[in-house]
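Q: Got a minute? One more chain.
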Amino acid sequence: METLTAGAAQPEAHPSLMRLAERRAAGKRLRDRVPRDAHAAWRSYAGRADPINILRAADANRQKQLVPLRYGRMLQSPFTFYRGSAGVMAADLAETPVIGIRVQVCGDCHLMNFGGFATPERRLLFDINDLDETLPAPWEWDVKRLVASFVLAARANGLSDADGRDAAVVCAHSYRRKMRDFTAMDVLDIWYARLDDSDVLAMLPEERKAVLRKRIAKATAAGSSELVFPKLAEQAGGQPRIHDTPPTIFHEEASRAAGDIDMIRGALGKYRETLDENRRILFDRYRLVDAAVKVVGIGSVGTLCMVALMMSIADHPFFLQFKEANASVLEAYAGKSAYAQHGERVVQGQRLMQPASDLFLGWGIGPEGRHFYIRQLRDAKLSPLVETFDAEMLSIYGKMCGWALARAHAKAGDPWTISGYLGNGGQFDDAMGKFALAYADQAERDHAALKAAVSAGIVEVRLEH
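A: Always. Here it is, folded:
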C-alpha cells in the first residue's frame, strides 16, 4: 500500500478550507494511504549516510576547541549520543512514512528537552523548553524522536526494554488522547491550555510529591538571578564578575574577552529592537557588567553560547543567555525557514509552540553575522531528574511529555485532521512502541560507530572529570 514521505504530495484539499467534521474525515481517509501500523517499522535503508560524517559536517559551524568536549559527552552512553545527534535522526526520519500534515515542530524532541519554567506572570509550567531546531515539518517526526528517547533512557537507568516500550506507548497514547481532546475545544482554549505545577503534582504518586514540592519551593522562592548569582558570580576589584568554572563557564584570554564584551554590547542594541516597547523600558534599567562563554547541553556544545551579567539601576543582578542559532537540522529535509535570521526562527517557533515564553526572549546578530537568540538564564527552571526514574515514573513522565507535545502541535497546527488519522484505538500507540525499540537499537549501533571512530583517531574527544 502506498505511503508518503516528507517530500511527497500534500493531501488533496488544504485543511484550512475544510470544516471541522470534514477535517476529521480527511484525516481518517489518510489511513488508506499511510496505515497507522506503517509507522512501526524502522530498518537501516540503502544509501544511509554514515552517522559520523553527518556529525562531523556540522562541526564546521562550531568552535573548534569545544568540539572534542561535545564528542566526549556523546560518548558516555547511547542515550547521550542520541541527545547530541538530532541531525542523524533528521536524515532517518525523512525516510519514514508521513501523512502530509505539517506543524511547527520542536525538531529535537527528546525527553530531556522538556521541563519546568516560569511564565512572565510567575506561574510554573511544564512544557518543551529547547527549540533550537524548530521548523515547520511533519508532526510524526517529533513523536518518533520523543518515544525512542524513552527506550534509551530506560536502558540507561538499567530498566528493561519492556519498561521503555511501555513508557513510549504511554507517551504516544497521551499525545493521541490529548489531540482528540483539543478537537472538542475552541481554538482560543487550545492556546490557553497548559500543564502547571499543580497538574504535574496531581499525576505523581504520593511518595514523589514531597520531593517535587521542595524543588518547586526552592525554584520559586526568589528571582532566578538571585538564585544563580552566588553560583556564577564573584567580586573582583569591587565589581561583580562571572566566576570561571572551566570547561563549562570561562572568560576567553584578555584580548578576546574584551571582544566578547564588545560583541555582547553590539548585539544588545539589535536585540532590544526585537522586544515589545514595554519590555524595552524594563531592559533599559540594566547595564552590562560582564560576559563569559557558557558550554551547554550536548547537541549545542561548540555553538557559541554566552552568559551576560547585567546590573539594574538598583544594583541587583540579572543574567541573560546568548545562544547561537544556526540552520535547523531539519532544513535539508523539510525546507528552509521563512526567517532568514535563525535567532528569529527559534524565537518565533518558541512563541508558537510554548503556552508562554520568557519575558526577555528576543534575537540579535553579532560580529561575523552570527545569529543569536537571547533569554533569561534559568528562570525558575526545573530539569527532569530522569536518571532517578523507575519504570512507573518514566511512564508518568511519558504521559506529561505526550500531553505537552500534543498541545504544542495543536496550538497552531491541525488537531482535527491529525486526530482523525490517529483515531480512538491504540494502533498508533502500539506502532510507536515498536518504532521506539527499533530506533533505540539504531542509536546504539551509531553510538558504537562513534566509539570506533574515537578508537581509530578519526574523532577527538575531551572527557570531563
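A: Residues 8-12 have pLDDT under 50 and may be disordered.
Q: Perfect, thanks.
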